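pinging the channel bc i need a second pair of eyes. not urgent but kinda urgent?? the chain im working w is below, pasted from the shared doc
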Amino acid sequence: MKHKLAGIVIISSIVALLTGCENELPEDASFGQKVNYTITGIEPGAGVTEQSRQALETYENLEGWTLLESSTAGMTTELDQAIKQEEPIIITGWTPNWIFERYDLKILEDPQNAFGEGDDIYSFARQGLEEDKPSAYTVLDRFAWEIDDMQAIVNDIQTTPIDEAVQEWIDSNQDQVDVWTEGVEPVDDESFELITTPYDTERVSAEIVRTALEQVGYDVNVTTVDPAIMYQALAAGEADGSVAPWLPVTHGYFVDEFGDQLVNLGVNLEGAVTGLVVPSYIEEIDSIADLEPAPNTEN
């Protein structure tokens, strides 16, 4: 019990110290001081996390900054709390993403191109899928849709179960699904392993493809994993296909490693973007280059 009480006292002291430091900031404190030179990030295995690490190395003015890796849910909670109080925050972000529907945000300009020119989202298959499951291969190869459609469903699933939101989109866009499945030979409850990543955009696209494959008779299992595992599984033939790869930037290093063991079916959605993001009320920061280095850093 004494140890527990001591721990509580220590934690309370740290919180008090941090709170005190926040209160001691001068009125003209810079944006960097206000966020403690910290970028609020998501999971360590995410592509935008790797890009953000690269940005810290690319930009000399980010010397001394820290990337706080947590989770997508943790990042969005921090963002929500900051915006409610109109406090400064900088996050790792991407679009399409529901946060751009709910909040007024801006992706910082990236003059040194650390995050690249932007991405498209691709469809990939394991080697041999065209011969083993030609109907599924055809549907996967034909699958393509618009960023506005994805964004709308991603926004809907914040308040509606994903299966309901996807079914509503299917009901309103069956003609689009018919384009993917037209002339495809039906199958009888044949299994298909669809693999994706744990982000709303990819969960939505996977569910759309699941429905299209089910309409031609496949029994589809969707597995959600970190990006690195997704590419490993496809390369090993443990999964049949995916509509989640972001290229050429976000997942580029995975394709460099596993690309010769995969079948690239091409773009299924154009115009994805990653970068560092701040609320639009942060008027003094428009570019990564506007951020100042942390003090007392070694050059």
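so Residues 195 and 223 are 5 Å apart (CA to CA). and Confidence is low (pLDDT under 50) at residues 1-22. — does that match what u expected or am i reading it wrong
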